[in-house]
């Protein structure tokens, strides 16, 4: 059974003459334990797909199934939130400014029925590379990378099987982006997690994802595996353009890399 299956997904905003389709006819499937990337330029619909899965957008048609269960509208039950968690781009905005790390993690753990909260908080902090010293800090007492680690710990608290990652490193300094990507990669291996990650950066996706869907103006134009990406042999001209932009090369007609002029 696939972790996530999407068929003929159309997502729109507004109604009547104001209706605008942000995603049109998208299809993808992500096996359990796989890491799948969604790339494309700004406004191409990447986050909209993630948000529709998460239940943050009610206006969609088609089929979204998580672990075999078809989702309806924007209603998601407790079981969904236990299985699927989301990490947002901006840890500054996603953490409550007046809550300590301890409170943020305790609340999620309590909500999901865990009662050995003390031990779990210590384990979560250590799993994301933060020591006990961080437990009673407020977000403003943390660096951007540390905040994103807290956001990841909070997402892991319910012991999810699937993480939806919306540009998880793009708000961070370049120097900490790789640290967070490595952390995410290690966590996936250790916990057998499935990732669906949005990024505008092919380098980031190539680092973390085995398979990538390329989006342009609301449509998936190509789904390619990491090997095809590394060999610089995409089928679609738009993917070629993205690859060229990301590595600063001019790809020859058959995809052979030629030096940029
Ligand atoms: N709440 C909303 N109401 C109306 N239109 C929206 C809303 N959210 C997104 N859109 C529109 O949907 C389209 C896709 O947006 P989306 O955020 O999915 O793009 P994206 O590929 O994730 O881009 P970015 O990398 O900039 O986040 C855009 O044209 C955007 O303006």
UniProtKB/TrEMBL annotation:
UniProt-recorded name of the protein: Peptide/nickel transport system ATP-binding protein
PANTHER family, sorted: D,D-DIPEPTIDE TRANSPORT ATP-BINDING PROTEIN DDPF-RELATED, TRANSPORT ATP-BINDING PROTEIN
Keyword ATP-binding part of the UniProt annotation: yes
InterPro entries: AAA+_ATPase (IPR003593), ABC_transp_ATP-bind (IPR050319), ABC_transporter-like_ATP-bd (IPR003439), ABC_transporter-like_CS (IPR017871), P-loop_NTPase (IPR027417)
Organism: Oceanicella actignis
Domain ABC transporter, first and last residues per copy: 4-242
Keyword NADP: no
Species classification: Bacteria, Pseudomonadati, Pseudomonadota, Alphaproteobacteria, Rhodobacterales
Molecular function GO terms recorded: ATP binding; ATP hydrolysis activity
Family in the record: Belongs to the ABC transporter superfamily.
Source domain of life: Bacteria
SUPFAM superfamilies the UniProt entry points to: P-loop containing nucleoside triphosphate hydrolases (SSF52540)
């Amino acid at each position: 059974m696939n972790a996530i299956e999407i068929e003929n997904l159309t997502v729109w905003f507004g109604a009547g003459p104001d209706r605008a389709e942000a995603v049109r006819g998208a299809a993808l499937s992500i096996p359990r334990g796989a890491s799948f990337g969604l790339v494309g330029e700004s406004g191409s619909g990447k986050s909209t797909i993630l948000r529709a899965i998460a239940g943050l957008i009610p206006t969609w048609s088609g089929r979204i199934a998580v672990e075999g269960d078809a989702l309806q509208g924007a209603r998601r039950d407790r079981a969904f939130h236990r299985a699927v968690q989301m990490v947002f781009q901006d840890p500054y905005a996603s953490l409550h400014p007046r809550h300590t790390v301890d409170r943020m993690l305790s609340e999620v753990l309590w909500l999901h029925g865990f009662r050995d909260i003390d031990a779990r908080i210590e384990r979560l902090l250590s799993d994301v590379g933060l020591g006990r010293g961080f437990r009673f800090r407020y977000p403003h007492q943390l660096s951007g990378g540390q905040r994103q680690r807290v956001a990841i710990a909070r997402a892991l608290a319910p012991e999810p099987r699937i993480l939806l990652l919306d540009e998880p490193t793009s708000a961070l300094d370049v120097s900490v982006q790789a640290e967070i990507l490595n952390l995410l990669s290690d966590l996936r291996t250790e916990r057998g997690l499935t990732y669906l990650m949005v990024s505008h950066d092919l380098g980031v996706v190539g680092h973390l994802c085995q398979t990538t869907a390329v989006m342009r103006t609301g449509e998936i134009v190509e789904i390619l595996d990491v090997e095809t990406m590394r060999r610089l042999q995409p089928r679609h001209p738009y993917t070629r353009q993205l690859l060229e932009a990301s590595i600063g090369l001019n790809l020859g007609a058959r995809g052979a890399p030629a030096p940029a002029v």
